[in-house]
Amino acid sequence: GETILVWAPVGGVGSLLVPWAASLGARVIAVTSTEAKAEKARALGASDVIIGYEGVADKVREL
User: Fold this and answer.
1) pTM of the predicted model, to two decimals?
2) Of 7, 42, 46, 58, which one's alpha carbon is 20 to 30 angstroms from that of 17?
């Protein structure tokens, strides 16, 4: 399967992209700013969520 990273997963485009990619079987890694938005991203189908924008590349590698 494919893995995609979605920045702002609960915004206009992100809220469409996350469930679409998840429904196609992709692993969705979402990057957002708050725990509340992270919960929404998970509800939309994100497999993993990173909260905060610093060190994102390193955090993705850790997954």
Assistant:
1) 0.93
2) 58
